[in-house]
Amino acid sequence: MNKKEKKYLFTLGCLTLIAIMYQLMQPTPVDWSESYSSTDKKPFGAYILSEQLPVLFPNKEINENQFPIFEAPLNYDQKNWIFINTEFSLDQFETQLLMDEVNYGSHVFISARKMENSFADSLGFELNQKLPLINPSANSLDSLLKKPLNFVNPELKEPNGWNFPITLNEVYFSVFDTSRTVILGSDNRDNINFIKIEHGEGAFFLHTSPFLFTNYFLKNPEKYDYAFKALSYLPETDTYWDEYYKVGKLAYSSPFRFIVSKPNLRRAWFLALTGLILYLLFKSKRMQRAIPEIKPLSNTSIEFARTIGNLHLNKGSHKDLFEKKYSFFLDYLRTNLNIDTNKLTEETIKKVSQRSGIPEEQTKELFHRVELFSTKEAVTDKELQSITEQIDNFYKNSQR
User: Is 220 domain-assigned?
Assistant: First the structure.
């Protein structure tokens, strides 16, 4: 790396360090994104509510559901289901499964500002659609205009109601079947936000303001009891808290989506990507030097074998050369075929044939000739040439 490249890298490192220090010095903005997950401690998470479920349903089993309804434990025994999310929209198959569960005595509590498709059609209700307005740079919702929400039941009703931001509570029921619906709650203008729809031996409790069950309001001493009173309509029995139908679960379906969803991670990602592109641009200006051709090393073992062969031929010691070839042949059997060559029996010859893939008759003939030449006092030129060709053919045709 030359001095110019070092200068570029040093400058890039300093800029990166300055950017990181600037981000660390900035106040952490409030994350107003909705998740309603039991693991999230941000304002619109549901960590506090999830932790308080054993208090709401004492001595009862609290389960967490991580599956869609068609894979959930719907065994048609009496239990509670709690769904809190931005929206709750099931297809026809899932709706029928959930309605069958309620028909056998279960109770389902749903709080979402959007409920539609087959689920809404099957229960015969409609919601007006309004999106909440939240300033993403705000540190609090206290400055928002508020309106009171209250319950119809006198035992739960507060004289002045509970004041919640208007922009978070503008969704209400516009159409519902009055013959099977019980009104449980509304605002000061009689806009209905909480109803009960009986179905078989169980019931659906439908609420239009999921924000009221999040950490932001449950940590407020003046507002937390609204959520607990709403959930008090559920009987004290085993309860399933849903973690599958969550907006956060859908948003973070891939690592890249999770990175771009977090402001600091997103800035770090694009900063690193920009630095990499700049480095490649500067690096591309450097010309690649010519790479000298490196010739592969010659096979000296072959040259050595030829030299030794010529030496034996010149001296006429064909017997000695045969013994060396025979020794190399036995070493090949041990090394490549894993054959024990201490005793060359009929069983050994059979193993050599099986492992090399050479017919047994040819193998027997080769060993017979080798044994014959080993007993001779001298080996002629033609005999050496013949046995050498036979051994070389064995090497060539062997499958190992």
Answer: yes
Which of 231, 251, 271 is where one domain is finished?
251
- Parent domain of 105: 47-251
Task: Tell me the pTM.
Answer: 0.59
Q: Is residue 213 part of a domain?
A: yes
Q: 95 lies in a domain?
A: yes
Q: What is the pLDDT of residues 41-93, one digit of tens each?
A: 999 999 999 999 999 999 999 999 988 888 887 777 889 999 999 999 898 99
- Whether 329 and 245 share a structural domain: no
Nearest CA-CA partner of 243 in 393, 34, 66: 66
Same domain flag for 85 and 230: yes
- For residue 90, the tally of other CB atoms under 10 A from its CB is 23
